[in-house]
Write a structure and sequence with these properties.
Blueprint lengths: L11 E6 L3 H8 L5 E5 L9 H14 L7 E4 L8 H8 L6 E4 L5 H17 L8 E5 L19 E5 L3 H7 L13 H17 L2 E4 L8 H14 L3 E4 L5 H7 L4 H15 L6 E4 L2 E4 H13 L3
Parallel strand pairs: 1-2, 1-8, 2-3, 3-4, 4-5, 5-6, 6-7, 7-8
Antiparallel strand pairs: 9-10
Helix pairs in contact: 2-3, 9-10
GO molecular function: lyase activity; magnesium ion binding
Family: Belongs to the HpcH/HpaI aldolase family.
Keywords: Lyase, Magnesium, Metal-binding, Plasmid
């Protein structure tokens, strides 16, 4: 199966509770690339019916680009997901976040629901995209490599908190503050799975929204590893995330030099550069960075 080389480009994905108009407005008016109106964890069971209507009405009230307004529904194997979709699809969200995805079959089922609801609402088929949370259950850890070609899927992300609950872990971090081995493995599985599927890998949240320096370091590190963006829980995190996932002028200049030197020497497999040798993987990485930077 041929995987598209066009990767969905969104650096920051900011959550806002679906039962708070004020917080949805704040997220929408921020610099986030994607605002996610949450009907799952941020809303209690008793408030979910009310929140569905609030999210649908809020989407209808916005006259700006709906492609950046997404909705996190409840898990497909629970009692709320279909009601969530029926409530919000007609308001034309740009995408749906699918929590606790157990594998490709869940994305295919979500696609079936969306296809029917788009027709009913006279919406262009396939307009609504999907990001899947792929490591929130134990069984899902074994299916992160199965998403290639999944309909509507443009991004994959992972979750450490629900995975800790699923595993019976008392904490997902060690004494040094870093994720424990199993949770670092989940992050890696998400990254590798997204690469195999040809979609964007999005890192999970940092729960301490006040520690922006740690956020910056982490975001810069995961971008070096291949992640394309990060989830956020507070507007204060958005600018830090956007900056970390935007190539610097120096990075762009170096990448352009590498592309230019290979272009000036067609047919050469390896070439000298600043005292070292570059081969074709360096060229591929330089081209990818320039594409990410919009050059």
């Amino acid at each position: 199966m041929t995987i598209s080389t066009e990767i969905f480009n969104a650096r920051s994905w900011l959550f806002a509770p679906g039962d708070s108009v004020r917080k949805m407005e704040k997220a929408s008016d921020s610099a986030t690339d994607v605002a996610i109106f949450d009907l799952e964890d941020a809303v209690t069971e008793s408030e979910k019916p009310k929140a569905r209507g609030m999210v649908a009405d809020f989407l209808k009230s916005r006259t700006d680009d709906h492609s950046r307004f997404w909705v996190r529904i409840n898990p497909l194997d629970g009692p709320f997901a279909l009601a969530d979709l029926v409530a919000v699809v007609g308001s034309r969200p740009g995408g749906i976040m699918l929590p606790k995805a157990r594998g490709r079959a869940d994305v295919e089922l979500l696609n079936n629901y969306l296809s029917i609801l788009e027709v009913a609402a006279d919406i262009e088929p396939g307009l609504i995209k999907v990001i899947a949370l792929v490591t929130e259950t134990a069984e899902a850890m074994f299916t992160t490599g199965d998403y290639a070609g999944a309909p509507r899927l443009v991004a994959m992300t992972w979750g450490a908190e629900d995975l800790a609950v699923a595993l019976g872990a008392s904490d997902n971090k060690g004494a040094d503050g870093d994720y424990g081995f199993t949770f670092q493995m989940a992050r890696s599985f998400c990254l590798i799975g997204a690469a195999a599927a040809g979609v964007a890998a999005i890192d999970t949240i940092q729960s301490d929204f006040r520690d922006l320096e740690t956020l910056r370091k982490r975001a810069e590190q995961v971008r070096r590893e291949g992640y394309r963006g990060m989830l956020a829980i507070h507007p204060a995190q958005v600018d830090v995330i956007n900056a970390a996932f935007t190539p610097s002028d120096e990075e762009v200049m170096t990448a352009q030099e590498i592309v230019d030197i290979f272009a000036a020497n067609p047919g050469v497999g390896a070439i000298g550069y600043k005292g070292g040798m570059l081969d074709r993987p360096y060229l591929s990485r330089a081209q990818a960075l320039l594409k990410l930077a919009g050059r």
